[in-house]
Amino acid sequence: FKTENRRMKIRHKILKQKYYLNVFNGIFLALGLMLFTFGLWFLCDRNNLFSVLFSSGENQLVAYISCMLLGVGSVIAFTSAMGFLGIIKEIKCLLVTYVSFQILVFVTQMAISGLIFIKKEEVHTQWNNRIDEVISEYGNESLAEQEPVWNILNAVQHNMECCGRYNVTQWEWNKNKENSTQIPCSCTKSNLKKWFCDVRRNSTYSMGCEEYLNTWFENNVLIFTAITISLLITQIFLITLTGQLFRNTKKNNIWPNE
């Protein structure tokens, strides 16, 4: 009777641990799929400002980030599927493999988080330099392949009612205009489908787009960081609970022999 009572208590613990493990594993899977979607969005969305700016020419930053996110997201999905099977069926070898993968992903996530923290300012500086470069190249007939970038810049300026990165005077750097007084039509309320317009300076948008562009950049970094931190916290719970489940499953298999 005493042995049976112990077995019942252990079995009750196992059922509770399996429930919480499945919940946290589901959260882990959802966050992993979010990372995978993030990577897919970067890779495939040609209207994404960051992708358009950083996937042209020799700059392959978007490709590297996309591959990294797709890889981590895929490993998380595989690990979660293995975890669900090991948890439900109480297969000890799968639980050990699951914890091993969790630790591997945890270390990888820590490395990525550290890299983001170290490289954030560098990427932000590249971001501003790349926007300045686009402004200086804008409208150059020999760079027709850059038109998607210019169209994105036009959309930002027109929709946000701003001009240049910091203000309208930045367009004085551009050497592709017919005359020095011209500015992009997107810096005005004009709907003309051409690169530059002759307009009075006081009829243009005077505010620069830097605040909007920086907010967009910071928001995306914040979302990515929040997903990463959530993953790390979830993994701590998963590793702890899986270890407890493994021990209790082992005990549950021992008691019948006593």
UniProtKB/TrEMBL annotation:
InterPro entries: Tetraspanin/Peripherin, Tetraspanin_animals, Tetraspanin_EC2_sf. The chain crosses the membrane at residues 20-43, 63-88, 95-118, 221-241. Keywords: Disulfide bond, Membrane, Transmembrane, Transmembrane helix. It is a multi-pass membrane protein. Pfam families: Tetraspanin. It is found in: Membrane. It comes from the Eukaryota. SUPFAM superfamilies: Tetraspanin. Its main location: membrane. The keyword Disulfide bond applies. GO terms for cellular component: plasma membrane. The keyword Magnesium does not apply. Disulfide bonds join C163-C185. Belongs to the tetraspanin (TM4SF) family. This is Tetraspanin. It comes from Dromas ardeola. The lineage of its organism: Eukaryota, Metazoa, Chordata, Craniata, Vertebrata.
